[in-house]
Write a structure and sequence with these properties.
Blueprint lengths: L1 H21 L3 H21 L3 H23 L14 H18 L11 H18 L4 H9 L1 H22 L20 H22 L7 H19 L1 H7 L2 H24 L14 H32 L6
Helix pairs in contact: 1-2, 2-3, 3-9, 3-12, 5-6, 6-7, 6-12, 7-11, 7-12, 8-9, 9-10, 9-12, 11-12
Length: 323
Amino acid sequence: MEQLIDIVLLGFLVLIAIAAIRLRDLFAVVMLFGVYSLLTAALFMDLDAVDVAFTEAAVGAGVSTVLMLSGLRLTRRWEEAPGHRPPLPLMVVAVTGAALIYAMLDAPPLGDPTAPVHQHVTPYYIEQTPLEVGVPNIVTAVLASYRGYDTFGETVVIFTAGLAVLLLLGVGGGHSFRPGENAIGDQTVLKPVVKTLIPPILLYGLYVQFHGDFGAGGGFQAGVIFASGFVLYDLAFGEGNARAVVPPAWLHRLAALGVLIYGGVGVYALFAGKAFLDYSALSANPVAGQHAGILLVEIGVGITVFSVVLSIFYAFSGRRRKS
C-alpha cells in the first residue's frame, strides 16, 4: 500500500511539473508550485521523514508561494514566448538527468538494512543519543548537536541569502505605507477570521520551537511559522500596520542576533577549554549541557529564519511596479 501511495504521488508530481513547464500563465504556475510542494510534503510523510515534511509544507507550500505571488506583482502575469529554441536546454537537462541516474545506480535500495549507513552511522546515533545528548528526538540531536557545524553553516547561509535579497531589492522601495492599506482590499469577513487565526499560529510557532527536542520541529520550522503569522497579518490588515508592529529595521538586527547566539555558544565552549559547539561546556552535567546548548542554538536559528523570511517579504511587498 505504501508503494502504491508513493507511485501515485510521484505520478502527480510529474504531471504538475510538465504542466508548469508548458503553462504561460505565471499565476497558475505559482499555484502549481504550491501544490507540488504540498504533495512533496505528503510524500515525505509517507516515507516517515516527518521533520522534512514539516519544513517542506511550511516553506514550500506556504512562504515560498506567498513570496512568488509578491514577486509576481512586480512583473507581468503572462510569460513571453522564449527567444531561444528548446533543443539545447532539453539536451542539457537530458544529459544531466542521465548522469544523475547513472550515479544513483550504485546507491543501495531505499531502506536496505545492509546499507553502510544502517551498519555504522545509524546504530551509533540510536545507541548513543540517549546517553550523550539525552534528547528523545534523534533528528534534533543529529542536526543540533552531532552535526551542529553544518547547521551553523546553514544558518549563516540563510542570513547571507537574506542580505543578498535586501541588497538587490531593498526594504520599502520608497513607498509610503498608510495604516489599513493592504494588498487584498477591505475584506469584511477575512479580517475577523485572520484576527482569530493569528494567536494560534504564533502559539503553535512557540510550541514547535520548544518542542523540537521531543517531536518534529525546531528553530527552522518555528521561524517560518512565526513569519507566516506576520505575513498573514500584513496581507489582511495592511503593510503600514504590519511594519508598525515589526519595523524592517528590527529584522536586520534580529537576523544578525540569531547568528550571534548560535556562534556565541561555540565561542563560549572554546573559552571553556572545549571544542567549538561542544555543549557540555555549558554545565557540569554533560547531558544537561547538551539540552541547554540545543535550546540556545535552536532559538538562534528560529530568530534568524523568522527575520530573514519576513525581511524578504517586506522587500517584495514594499516595491511597486513602475507604470
